Amino acid sequence: MFEKILIANRGEIACRVIKTARRMGIKTVAVYSDADRDAVHVAMADEAVHIGPAPAAQSYLVIEKIIEACKQTGAQAVHPGYGFLSEREAFPKALAEHGIVFIGPNPGAIAAMGDKIESKKAAAEAKVSTVPGFLGVIESPEHAVKIADEIGYPVMIKASAGGGGKGMRIAESADEVKEGFERAKSEASSSFGDDRVFVEKFITDPRHIEIQVIGDKHGNVIYLGERECSIQRRNQKVIEEAPSPLLDEETRRKMGEQAVALAKAVNYDSAGTVEFVAGQDKSFYFLEMNTRLQVEHPVTEMITGLDLVELMIRVAAGEKLPLGQDDVKLNGWAVESRVYAEDPTRNFLPSIGRLTTYQPPAEGQFGEAIVRNDTGVEEGGEIAIHYDPMIAKLVTWAPTRLAAIESQAQALDAFAIDGIRHNIPFLATLMAHPRWREGALSTGFIKEEFPEGFTAPEPEGQVALRMAAVAAAIDHKLNTRKRGISGQMRDPSLLAFQRERVVVLSGQRFAVTVDTVGSDLHVTVEDGAVVPVRSDWRPGEPVWSGTVGHETVAIQVRPLLNGVFLQHQGAAADARVYTRREAELADLMPVKENANSGKQLLCPMPGLVKQIMVTEGQEVKNGEALAIVEAMKMENVLRAERDGKVSKIAAKEGDSLAVDAVILEFE
């Protein structure tokens, strides 16, 4: 077994590998760029080596720097994590030339399966069902349009060396193929150093299901069940679960056996994932193979009880797999939410900045459920523009799917992040969505269920009642604390007056009375219902945790003037708590109107201006492309929201802009 390994990656996956290596008694070496000098993975590792500037092309993607770090520290093997160099055939070859072991598949398997075009050819030769498409080199946008016309729309344009949703576009028409081809090539070049793309038929109403495989260097390959990854935005996974609510045992076996056959055909000898696009009728087609550890591997670990990183390390060291196919047992259900630094209300555009608050939910077993949080950040850390915007992977396990979803929902409510925009409100909304809970999924789920984009829903029904009761309890505690500090509690009559309040929650009014009963507060609402409220919450804490009625509840809390901002199960509202007289007067206050910025194109996230597509004085139509801004390895096309004329261009190509910076103005 290795004595020391280097992790050629950063963030949560580097931390994840370090944890397993530490448990196995293996020392670890981290590498870091200028942007990651103070990162968590650097502090966790036994040693750390600086490898260059912040851009990945000058640090994490430079093979020579990784090899030099191995020589400098005496690392015997390298775990690549995912992304970066993990699927570059040249990487394990270069390591081998210097006597360093690659903790991943052999170069031949990467060449055959890691390249999306070559993998489809290999699958076809192995008689695996594949999606209709063109696997040759596409020379131009016009060539891509011709191919798409022959295949039939919609089509998917995809980077050959891609992954993580980068270099991928769905096109419904010839014009969309032309634009998508250029964007996919550009993203593929900047993210993977390879601008080749291919075109294939896009299956309507598809589901994304993948099979986890693991092989050793002795010819043994097994599959470890499936994961459903159909909840996606911009072709990037948001929520994953294992097993899939679609599959039955027979379909699972067929998909698993195909995945194993394909892996054996290329002598696969590590952890990898064979991805399928599945129809609602359980038909399935080979999509691609990822020759690395997947982001969503924790859900497989949770239902199998296996540590995939440990298996990868042992296999790389020459050990045989410690189990056969019949030994693989699936137990319970696991759900994973990817917590991203992005703004779901702005079409999920990336967000950067400092994590002024970062308090994930407690990990461990709670009743029958288990909570796990894989992360690589900490409070006070900074989310930089140079890398993927994922902050954490929140995973819950329970005996049943609905129990795992309920545990996930509660854990998301208890996950406090401030300083940047993030997608936790969206994830929490998804957990309560009836279609998600029923398992009626497809890769078009988000587009279909949120056609106008995401806006945090206003609280209704029991959620609103629960939030109003908590707002009243918080107000009561704050007032009691303030009166104690100022000495006003000497007169008991003042307390009686303060018991009667009005909670205004997003326009809804709740007349409440708050009574202290032992260690509980009893909040009586206007219809006479009494809600017991119990919590150890203290002023200043970002999460209110306790019980409301007989339910265990976590609610996000942020202070406001004369009230609090609350977020629970995705619903968000300002809760103003008044005396009865204050409520009457508040109704008379004027509402401040927001300024209209419709005559400006603002940068929706911090990013680099890649292209300005219009000129001053140009007439533009609604939907016309105006500029391209790159952030976190994704190119975002900004379009006109109405007809108009460009009066001024305030930014130029190459500018790094802050969020809401003016790009251009209209007359």
UniProtKB/TrEMBL annotation:
UniProt-listed NCBIfam families: PRK08591.1
Keywords (A to Z) from UniProt: ATP-binding, Biotin, Ligase, Lipid degradation, Lipid metabolism, Magnesium, Manganese, Metal-binding, Nucleotide-binding
Record EC number: 6.4.1.3
Natural source organism: Methylorubrum salsuginis
Required co-factors: biotin
GO molecular function: ATP binding; metal ion binding; propionyl-CoA carboxylase activity
Record keyword Lipid metabolism present: yes
Reactions mediated catalytically: propanoyl-CoA + hydrogencarbonate + ATP = (S)-methylmalonyl-CoA + ADP + phosphate + H(+)
One of the GO biological process terms: lipid catabolic process
Protein name: propionyl-CoA carboxylase
Superkingdom of origin organism: Bacteria
PANTHER family per record: CARBOXYLASE:PYRUVATE/ACETYL-COA/PROPIONYL-COA CARBOXYLASE, METHYLCROTONOYL-COA CARBOXYLASE SUBUNIT ALPHA, MITOCHONDRIAL-RELATED
Domain Lipoyl-binding, residue spans: 590-667
Residue span, ATP-grasp domain: 120-317
InterPro entries: ATP-grasp (IPR011761), BC-like_N (IPR005481), Biotin_BS (IPR001882), Biotin_carboxylase_complex (IPR050856), Biotin_carboxylation_dom (IPR011764), Biotin_COase_C (IPR005482), Biotin_lipoyl (IPR000089), CPAse_ATP-bd (IPR005479)
